[in-house]
């Protein structure tokens, strides 16, 4: 695939999260990609598939924030995705792997035959013990995709493609996940869960969605155990994190309780990530996880990277669009990486 000429603009990448909508547009300079425009704003109603009203609001925000053109690449709604790891016959057997993969997805999720779109890639391995072909497949029913596109285009936006969030995150974060000679685990921390990707020599070799491991679980625990509102819980998450507030700003009993919940959740997240990553290390004997990268809105929780580094002994860094120019917007930190990845769709 040829690269676009320097200065040409990408489509607008749109990441519809559980609580926020993020958008980004990039251009290619002679030194690489640069951020041309970005925006982030809270959803009208958290959770679920975005409504036509939310896409109308998105179109208005894009018009005010310096975006050019109405062509968008939008992430597939997670609630419409069907994802599975499939253990299939070895390719050397001559079996039609792709056709078997489609048939298995139809069987597992009762998808309408010939009425769904599927993306699948073979997970590599250096292990002589693994003889089968293992595929990571994601599928969306055509009617669900068409309904989603219709709501988006009713706002005057032109949908170029529906993209996978994990693929977009991998595109945008690949360079910053290739620095280690060992395996690198990327944790894209959202509200409803965490997208975990494992990189080897700059290539994403494994992906898994950790349901319920996102920041929503933290605010729910804060609300139930400390008897505070969700709004106060989110404030503690954003401003305090694993660091204590200055004395006098917050009741010390509340701060201590919140800190304990933050630490318990962070330890649980690390355990779940390293356990899942063992699937990848098993496929590459002799290799181990050497670094962790954090992206997504939850990566901005104060002290999270430092705490995970302390309890894991690994190098932990937050991935931010620091190499993407000087454009700024609310939430233009690690939360913007998936939207940037959507904007890079098909760009080489």
Give keywords.
disordered N terminus, five-stranded mixed sheet, Nucleotidyltransferase, domain 5, 348 residues, 9 helices, 13 strands
Describe the structure in your own words.
By secondary structure, the chain is an alpha/beta fold. Among the domains are: 80-142; 208-316, Nucleotidyltransferase, domain 5, CATH 3.30.420. The protein has helices at residues 52-64, 97-109, 142-153, 165-173, 215-226, 230-239, 252-283, 304-312, 337-343; strands at 12-16, 20-29, 32-42, 71-75, 81-88, 116-122, 133-141, 158-163, 183-189, 193-200, 203-211, 289-295, 315-318. It has a five-stranded mixed beta sheet. A hairpin with a 3-residue loop joins strand 9 and strand 10. Helix 5 (215-226) packs antiparallel against helix 7. The protein is globular. 39% of the residues are buried.
What's the layout of helices and strands?
Elements lengths: L11 E5 L3 E10 L2 E11 L9 H13 L6 E5 L5 E8 L8 H13 L6 E7 L10 E9 H12 L4 E6 L1 H9 L9 E7 L3 E8 L2 E9 L3 H12 L3 H10 L12 H32 L5 E7 L8 H9 L2 E4 L18 H7 L5
Parallel strand pairs: 1-4, 4-8, 9-12, 12-13
Antiparallel strand pairs: 1-2, 2-3, 5-7, 6-7, 9-10, 10-11
């Amino acid at each position: 695939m040829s690269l676009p000429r320097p200065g040409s603009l990408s489509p607008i990448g749109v990441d519809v999260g559980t609580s926020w909508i993020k958008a980004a547009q990039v251009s290619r300079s002679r030194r690489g990609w640069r951020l041309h425009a970005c925006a982030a704003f809270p959803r009208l109603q958290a959770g679920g598939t975005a409504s036509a009203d939310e896409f109308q609001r998105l179109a208005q925000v894009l018009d005010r924030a310096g975006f050019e053109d109405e062509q968008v690449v939008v992430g597939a709604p997670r609630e419409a995705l069907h994802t599975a790891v499939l253990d299939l016959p070895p390719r050397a057997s001559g079996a039609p792997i792709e056709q078997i993969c489609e048939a298995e997805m139809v069987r597992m999720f009762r998808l309408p035959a010939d009425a769904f779109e599927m993306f699948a890639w073979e997970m590599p391995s250096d292990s002589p013990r693994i003889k089968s072909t293992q595929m990571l497949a994601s599928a969306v029913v055509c009617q669900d995709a068409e309904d989603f596109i219709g709501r988006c285009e009713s706002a005057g936006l032109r949908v170029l493609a529906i993209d996978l969030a994990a693929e977009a995150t991998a595109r945008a974060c690949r360079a910053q996940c290739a620095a280690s000679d060992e395996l690198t685990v990327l944790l894209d921390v959202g509200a409803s869960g965490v997208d975990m990707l494992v990189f080897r020599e700059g290539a994403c070799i494994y992906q898994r969605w950790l349901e319920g491991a996102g920041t929503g679980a933290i605010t729910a625990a804060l609300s139930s155990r400390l008897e505070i509102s969700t709004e106060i819980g989110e404030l503690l998450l954003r401003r305090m994190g694993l660091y204590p507030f200055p004395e006098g700003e917050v009741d010390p009993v509340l701060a201590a309780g919140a800190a304990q919940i933050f630490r318990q959740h962070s330890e649980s997240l690390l355990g779940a990530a390293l356990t899942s990553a063992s699937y990848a290390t098993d496929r590459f004997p002799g290799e181990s996880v050497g670094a962790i990268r954090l992206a997504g809105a939850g990566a901005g929780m104060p002290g999270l990277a430092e705490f995970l580094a302390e309890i894991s002994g690994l190098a932990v860094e937050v991935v931010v669009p620091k190499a993407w120019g000087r454009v700024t917007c609310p939430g233009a930190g690690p939360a913007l990486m998936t939207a940037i990845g959507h904007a890079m769709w098909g760009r080489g």
